Amino acid sequence: MSSASNNSFILDVRGLTKVFGGLTAVNDVTLQIPRQGIVSVIGPNGAGKTTFFNMITGIYEPTTGFIELDGVNLVGLRPDQVTSAGIARTFQNIRLFASMDCQENVMVGRHSRLKAGYIDSLFRTKRFYESEQEARDVANMMLDFVGLGQFRYEMATNLPYGDQRKLEIARALATSPKLVLLDEPAAGMNPRETEELKSLIRRIRDELGVTVCLIEHDMRLVMTLSEYITVLNYGSKLAEGLPHEIRNNPQVMEAYLGRGAVAGEYGKEAVAGMQEGV
Amino acid sequence: MDLSTLGPFLVGVITSGLVLGFVYAIIALGYTMVYGVLQLINFAHSEVFVTGAVVGFEIFRVLEPSPMNGYLKLLIALIAAMVASGMLNVIIERLAYRPLRNAPRLVPLITAIGVSLILQDVIRIIEGFQGRFDLTYKLPPAFNTNFCGADSSCEALGTALTKVGISLQIKEVIVVAVSLLSLALLNYLVNSTKLGRAIRAVAQDRVTAGLMGIDSNRIIALTFLIGGALGGISGVLFGMKFGTINAYSGFDPGIIAFTAAVLGGIGSIPGAVLGGLVLGVIQNLIGVTNVLGSILNIANLQAIDASYQRIGAFLVLVLILIFKPTGLLGRSNTEKV
After folding, report:
1. B19 class by beta-carbon count within 10 Å (0-12 exposed, 13-18 middle, 19+ buried)
2. How far is B216 from chain A (nearest CA, A)?
3. Which of A251-265, B35-49, B160-174, B180-194 has the lowest mean pLDDT?
4. Of the candidates B205, B211, B216, which has its C-beta nearest A57's C-beta?
5. Which has the minimum average pLDDT: A43-47, A97-101, B28-32, B194-198?
6. Chain A partners of B201 at a C-beta cutoff of 8 Å?
7. Which of A80, A96, A136 to mutate to probe the B interface, most B CBs <10 Å?
8. CB contact (8 A) between residue B197 and residue A111
9. What ipTM did this prediction achieve?
10. Would strands A228-233 and A87-89 be described as parallel, antiparallel, or unpaired?
11. Burial of A84 (0-12, 13-18, 19+ CB in 10 A)
12. Mind listing the pLDDT tens digit of every residue in chain A (278 residues)?
């Protein structure tokens, strides 16, 4: 394990634990995300992946543990402060602002980066106009980036499911993050949309220089996209390594397939995906 | 009265109903904005509104001997009431509601009723120390004259308006003008600024808004500030229109404005305005049902007079809850799974 000050890691999580009542949802997880990498956190349902994301983004305060983004401590910060520090996320269940159009949804993401204060907007100062224009420009840029440029004035809820996921990504990118956390971005997508998503995630890293961390159940996507994978099981870290190491790790297979012959469809599908996706 | 005078009569009734409706609308906005961000019926809003009315009364009282222009006095009264009510609302939120942010919804609701009762008596005590209970607005005399009345530069317009049944006092025109101005400003604030976008984002999904970098506590406090300021404006307008208020005057218009917010669809800003106007008109029409009854010669209607006005508002509330619980402009918030 490298030291905390190692500059090649953008996110440094150590000994992260969350206890709800008597249940330990996440237990002593340590994870480092390399700068400008694409990494995945996988694990069977209920492994604590989303709880892990929720602690990083400030929704839950960790029971114990330590989170640093680019050398800045995140433990104890509110979600909006974590966003200002440079982490953005999307959600497992799409959480767009239903009564806003696409452009405005993305403009909300720009909130913490706008310089004009509330007083400026009341008196319509020059700074207010400039910052509104900036928000709109960034929103349009991000919509174009994810390929939704032509739906700018469409209500978010009118978009098809796959596009709503892309809109969430655009909104997250509008916060100018250093690291973006994607919570099951491929859920509910058809194969064509998943292919598009794959190239979009690569472009986020290559063109915007943003580090990507995803939680995903689509193992084909995970195996082809990830440079490094961490496996959680029952809240603890089970394994970590390169995709081919994870694929060949008997413990990981066991976690997905179970010890006996009673592997569920989900586990079989996941393992098949791991072996297939290269 | 016969059928030939019925037209102008009804126009007059509806016009004054609309004037009243604007006051309700501005009060209703305070309920609906707070509901929008917290899903809380802020029952203390009626006292926030009375605070504005009292501050307005005090300003007009203190400035009465001053030769200052009446409209300048009005402006000072409005600003002072906005500041006082806005700050009061922020303090209420900070002390009474924020500590209960994660409590079950019934808890802050009951707290709101408690805050309402406390404020009523605090206002009564403060004015009582000065030997006052009923506070009669000392408006600049010009405000009580007719709009475009005799000897004014627009007498012709006034005569024409009177002919169709509209005869308004200057102060009623002020009520409408100030209301429209407030609505325009609020509309701009909510729909075209960063603050408004943040308020709408927090109203729709506080958690997601937080993750988009919006400090929801700050936005909630600012929403209380804006809602309170609107309460202050409506307090002054109410005081001007009715002339006399006291510490307990908030209850009636408060509950009617709340009904207006529900009627329009609570949480919806245009809904609150529509609801306020509709209730103002309904209330005035019920007030003259006896007159209509005598014109149309229906004996049963003649028994319904102004004392039944409030029943009208609550009948509307019951009907709307039965037939369209989301309100006229409200939208059902079904969550997709």
Report:
1. buried
2. 8
3. A251-265
4. B211
5. A43-47
6. 97, 100, 108, 111
7. A80
8. yes
9. 0.78
10. unpaired
11. middle
12. 444 445 789 999 999 999 998 889 999 999 999 999 999 999 888 888 999 999 999 999 999 999 999 999 999 999 999 999 999 999 988 899 988 999 999 999 999 888 777 777 767 778 888 888 899 999 999 999 999 999 999 999 999 988 999 999 999 999 999 999 999 999 888 889 999 999 999 999 999 999 999 999 888 899 999 999 999 998 999 999 999 999 888 888 888 876 554 557 777 778 888 877 65
The pair of structure tokens assigned to B226 is 């804006």
Tokens of A30: 């340590």
Of A80, A100, A171, nearest to B200 by CB-CB distance is A100
Domains delineated in chain A: 1-86+177-278 (3.40.50.300), 98-175 (no CATH)
B interface with A, Cβ–Cβ below 8 Å: 189, 192-195, 197-198, 200-201, 204-205, 207-216, 222, 331, 337
Give A273 to chain B, closest Cα distance, Å: 26
CA distance B302 to B290: 4
Which residues of chain A have a CB within 8 Å of the CB of B197? 100, 104, 107-108, 111
* Per-domain residue ranges of chain B: 27-261
A100 at the B interface (CB within 8 A)? yes
- Chain A residue numbers with beta carbons less than 8 Å from the beta carbon of B208 are 91, 95, 97
Distance CA A211, CA A191 (A): 24
How far apart are the C-alpha atoms of A229 and A237, rounded to whole Å?
11
Query: Are the CB atoms for A53 and A181 separated by under 8 Å?
Result: yes
